[in-house]
Specification:
Elements (H helix, E strand, L loop, with lengths): L4 H36 L3 H20 L5 H16 L3
Helix pairs in contact: 1-2, 2-3
């Protein structure tokens, strides 16, 4: 355990931020799973609405610094291609 006051505070702050990032990442993963579940079910309308929600969640996570912009762009691109291939 840290002895210096600033190090103790840093540990608490890091824990708080890690919990926040974990929660946001979990939400993004759930949104992505919904898109691919709709694709598996061959439900185009549900897939498009899930894609919209997932894209929004990914963009918010990127804005908060949880994902790098290239990572989020790659995820959105892959999902969009998968939904568009359904047609």
């Amino acid at each position: 355990m840290a002895n210096i006051k600033s190090a103790k505070k840093r540990i608490l702050v890091n824990k708080t931020k890690a919990d926040r990032n974990k929660s946001i990442k979990s939400g993004v993963k759930t949104a992505i799973k919904k898109v691919y579940a709709a694709i598996e079910a061959k439900d185009k309308d549900a897939a498009q609405s899930a894609l919209l929600a997932a894209t929004s969640a990914i963009d918010k996570a990127t804005k908060k610094g949880v994902y790098h912009k290239n990572t989020s762009a790659r995820k959105v691109s892959r999902m969009t291609l998968a939904v568009n291939k359904m047609a």
